[in-house]
Inverse folding.
């Protein structure tokens, strides 16, 4: 788990971003977007196989249900939800790969699924598990193909490439056949290939999946810098909370295809997990019972520090009592770990209050 | 647009060059049937003197030209496109502001063709020395054959692509492809020069696009057609090219819609 950076609370005050987009509209506007798949439904076994050959039964799967949100220019929004929540389906609709069953979306003034060339030239979809680069030739060749496909001038291409090279340290890896690259190197090349045309809207589906911690951190730093330089609007899905904490001030949580939460990450933890962790180090009292103060969390570190989960509104009172009644040597108050907050958020009952 | 084709060409050439052994195997597999027909028909014609007026030399000349024409006009779209549709990889290409079939798949076909042609040269020379057909080539006919071959490839590429796009709806597209190939072989003049088919089948053939993509260019190159026949065949080629374009566009539009409906 990543320690919570102390300055994170400062991020709640969102910087005033220019809401330019098209005609003053935010670049991404989604209204009541829904997608229902029809999935062939049959039981296992030969009999069922024969039966389904003649009469196929279909089950309706509501992948996305009446989801609405708006995203302003320059925002990086984390799109969270457990597997199968409808995140990828939503991103595919917004990037024009999927027709919605109902609802509207406008991205940069375009309707994504019309797949106008003008739209395709100003957005990108990066899927961590998909390969956009030609496998047997160096990535540099794929870059040049993208230059032609996106009709970039030599000057634009050079500028764009230099910036990406500078941020991602592509160096010699673009001269090796893609199949000989490590996963991290390939992901760098994938990102570069997807961003050569300097899209102003980025849909990133698990961009750091399968990467080691160092590579994840580099990709993250790159995305932040790209966003800063180009004022790009980004929707990002990730199962790594470190990605979300580092990049997104705002998160959208969907579960079973429905929008559950849309707002600041800090506010989320206040709402979902209204508790704090008090860590205390007691002097000369190894078996002191602290149950009276709050829920004692399992496990203590080698210094004998004990961790207590305490409702947020009672923190001052309990701290005072602890200090008065116990031989406290050291005491710290921490935010609940973000993984815990998200896990609670995925729990359906979390928002039913 | 030209830049896209140039880059695609460089990429495809480099990629397919890596799989040249694979390509050679494909070529040898493809060679089996025309070479067998070449051997069988020349032998039959030799023992009988002729078959319905066609001599052993006529057969040898026909199949030697067929080898070249077939490489020039055939297409491998299904091998490229159907797997991409089925494994969902087509999504990546749909995100690009360029038509995947009319750029990537087209250039892939042409690069494959170019490599095949190079590999065919030595094989063709060996067969030529074995059968020594009198070809009687004529510069005018060869010149006329250029547009005929290009249009023939256009027709087969568009029809083959439309057929490969059926993969949008079913995973059994290969069965359909095998059926299409068999019909093509029969009515294009692969198994036997079309003049030897029963009259009923010849009439059917004339209503299909296939004779205009193989039999016509061969007969044109061999100088077997009069001015009127040549004009008529070019006319039919144009009609089929237009039809194939319409069919391709319709199937593409419906297919992408289907793809986007079920989950690209």
């Amino acid at each position: 788990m990543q320690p919570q950076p102390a300055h994170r609370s400062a991020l709640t005050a969102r910087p005033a971003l220019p809401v330019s987009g098209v005609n003053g509209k935010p670049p991404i506007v989604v209204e009541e977007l829904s997608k229902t798949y029809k999935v062939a439904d049959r039981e296992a076994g030969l009999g069922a196989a024969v039966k389904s050959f003649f009469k196929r039964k279909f089950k309706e799967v509501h992948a996305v249900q009446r989801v609405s949100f708006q995203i302003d220019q320059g925002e990086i929004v984390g799109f969270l939800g457990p597997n199968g929540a409808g995140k990828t389906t939503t991103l595919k609709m917004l990037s024009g790969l999927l027709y919605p069953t109902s609802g509207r979306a406008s991205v940069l003034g375009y309707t994504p699924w019309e797949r106008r060339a003008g739209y395709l030239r100003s957005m990108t979809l990066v899927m961590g598990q998909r390969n956009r680069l030609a496998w047997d030739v160096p990535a540099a060749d794929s870059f040049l193909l993208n230059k032609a496909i996106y009709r970039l001038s030599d000057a634009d291409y050079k500028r764009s490439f230099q910036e990406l090279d500078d941020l991602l340290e592509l160096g010699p890896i673009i001269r090796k056949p893609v199949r000989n690259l490590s996963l991290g190197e390939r992901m760098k090349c994938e990102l570069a290939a997807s961003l050569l045309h300097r899209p102003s809207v980025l849909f990133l589906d698990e961009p750091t999946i399968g990467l080691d911690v160092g590579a994840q951190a580099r990709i993250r730093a790159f995305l932040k810098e790209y966003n800063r330089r180009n004022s790009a609007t980004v929707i990002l899905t990730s199962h790594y909370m470190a990605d979300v904490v580092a990049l997104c001030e705002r998160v959208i949580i969907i579960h079973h295809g429905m929008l559950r939460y849309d707002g600041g990450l800090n506010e989320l933890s206040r709402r979902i997990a209204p508790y704090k962790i008090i860590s205390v180090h007691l002097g000369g009292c190894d078996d002191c019972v602290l149950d009276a103060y709050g829920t004692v969390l399992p496990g203590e570190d080698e210094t004998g520090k004990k961790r207590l989960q305490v409702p947020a509104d009672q923190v001052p009172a309990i701290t005072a009592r602890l200090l008065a009644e116990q031989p406290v040597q050291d005491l710290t108050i921490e935010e609940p770990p973000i993984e815990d907050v998200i896990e609670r958020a995925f729990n359906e009952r979390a928002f039913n209050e | 647009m030209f830049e896209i084709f140039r880059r695609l060409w460089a990429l495809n050439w480099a990629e397919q060059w890596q799989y040249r052994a694979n390509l050679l195997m494909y070529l040898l597999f493809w060679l089996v049937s025309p070479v067998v027909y070449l051997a069988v028909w020349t032998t039959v014609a030799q023992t009988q003197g002729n078959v319905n007026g066609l001599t052993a030399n006529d057969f040898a000349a026909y199949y030697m030209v067929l080898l070249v024409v077939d490489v020039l006009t055939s297409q491998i779209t299904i091998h490229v496109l159907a797997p991409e549709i089925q494994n969902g990889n087509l999504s990546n290409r749909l995100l690009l502001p360029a038509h995947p079939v009319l750029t990537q798949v087209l250039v892939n076909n042409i690069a494959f063709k170019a490599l095949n042609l190079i590999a065919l040269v030595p094989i063709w020379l060996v067969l030529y020395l074995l059968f020594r057909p009198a070809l009687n080539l004529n510069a005018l006919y060869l010149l006329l054959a250029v547009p005929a071959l290009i249009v023939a490839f256009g027709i087969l590429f568009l029809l083959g692509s439309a057929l490969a796009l059926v993969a949008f709806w079913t995973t059994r597209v290969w069965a359909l492809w095998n059926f299409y190939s068999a019909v093509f072989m029969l009515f294009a003049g692969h198994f036997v020069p079309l003049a030897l088919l029963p009259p009923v089948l010849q009439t059917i053939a004339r209503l299909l696009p296939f004779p205009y993509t193989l039999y016509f260019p061969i007969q044109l190159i061999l100088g077997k057609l009069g001015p009127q026949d040549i004009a008529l065949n070019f006319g039919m080629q144009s009609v089929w090219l237009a039809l194939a374009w319409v069919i391709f566009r319709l199937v593409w539009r419906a297919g992408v819609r289907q793809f986007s409906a079920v989950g690209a």
